[in-house]
Write a structure and sequence with these properties.
With 207 residues, this protein is an alpha+beta fold. The protein has 2 domains: 3-60; 63-204, no CATH class. It contains 4 helices and 10 strands. It has helices at 3-28, 32-58, 139-144, 160-165, and strands at residues 63-64, 68-80, 83-89, 95-101, 104-114, 126-135, 149-151, 173-184, 189-196, 199-204. Strands 1, 5, 6, 7 and 8 form a 5-stranded antiparallel sheet that branches. Strands 4-3-2-9-10 form a 5-stranded antiparallel sheet, with no helix packed on it. A hairpin with a 2-residue loop joins strand 9 (189-196) and strand 10. The longest helix is centred in the N-terminal third of the chain and has 27 residues, at 32-58.
């Protein structure tokens, strides 16, 4: 988690509690105006602290994106006509294996790009691999043949991408978008799945 974001959240929490207590004290002594203002400021600071906490928790499953990073290594193995197996190794050493239907391996990712001023809090462009699926080359096959898709992302307490798409984080997020790539799954091969500032890409690994 970004350290500066956590520090900012803790500071907002402390200030919020201080202002709320001052507001309650003022209201008890019947200083209605001052008490109301202090209480509102305190509640606003507590809300901002809650927002900072939500972002920090939501980013647990996201990884910082620089120029280009390795998101996964995928090995494909044909099993039959329009059937293949994909073995995925993630950077944290998690291993997953899926049997997919189709002509190609498809993967997509969520990408969050923050406004430059938010970078001062330690938040930088982040990504999360979302799903892996089989893809048919022909549209007629896509319409009529079985589809296989699996979730790669871990379940999260807070879905930050979902929140960002509903503009709740409007002044903080510069852009939120999905990016996808696909490669042939009909032959044995190994690929590096990489995420760059322009999106997701797959590069073959030469033996």
């Amino acid at each position: 988690m970004p350290t500066r974001l956590l520090i900012a959240g803790l500071c907002l929490l402390v200030l919020g509690v201080v202002f709320c207590r001052a507001g309650v004290t003022a209201l008890r002594t019947r200083r209605w105006g001052g008490g109301a203002v202090r209480s509102l400021v305190g509640l606003l600071l507590l809300a901002l602290a809650g927002l900072a906490a939500a972002i920090a928790v939501g980013l647990r499953e996201y990884r910082s994106l620089t120029l280009e990073v390795l998101a996964a290594t995928v090995t494909t193995e044909p099993l039959g006509p329009q059937r293949f197996r994909a073995m995925i190794v993630l950077p944290d050493k998690r291993l997953a294996m899926y049997d997919l239907a189709g002509d190609a391996l498809y993967m997509d990712a969520h990408i969050l790009k923050w406004h430059p001023w938010v970078n001062l809090l330690g938040l930088h462009t982040s990504y999360e691999l979302d799903r892996v699926a089989g893809r048919y080359n022909a549209v007629s096959d896509e319409r009529s043949k079985p589809h296989t898709a699996y979730e790669v992302a871990r379940p999260a307490w807070i879905d930050l991408f979902w929140i960002a798409r509903r503009h709740v984080l409007g002044p903080l997020v510069d852009a939120e978008y999905g990016s996808a790539a696909f490669v042939a799954g009909t032959r044995p091969a190994r690929y590096e799945v990489r995420v760059s500032t322009t999106g997701l890409l797959m590069r073959p690994v030469v033996p």
